[in-house]
Please model this.
Amino acid sequence: GAGGEAVGNTSPAEPKEEITVTDSRFTGFDRSDQPFSISARNAVQDENDASKVRLQSVDAEVRHKSGQQIAIKSNAAVYDANSKTIDLKGDVRISSTGGFDARMAEARVDIDRHRLRSEVPVKVVHPRGVIQANGMEIEDDGARILFFNRVKARFGAESSKGSQE
Model:
């Protein structure tokens, strides 16, 4: 039968030539020689700026010097090879093997400096409690975490009740 799926892409103005890569993976090392990898379901490179790649269904992993893994997921992102930054958009989630779990709508990751900054509402659940703020910056592979703009924290409450969404 030919009545199956509707085509999702119905934008009238198609962009100029672009190259789409499916199931792509970028790997490399940051300035501390720690490995990082970024995988995406689709990667689209705009011919106007070869250093920028638009990604869909992003899954990134960064290893901390201590051996702790930090996983970063988002619906979409723009990877800039020149500045080694990733602009994450849509259901951004950052989690570490230490039990830290942060969610926000968008964030920018600076791979070389091991810094993540978000200026939108963020909710962090970790083993000792819950923190909500309208902005957050993570530096030094998570050794320094700064919350700003209307910060609310609750400690000790979540561990006994289990997680609430």
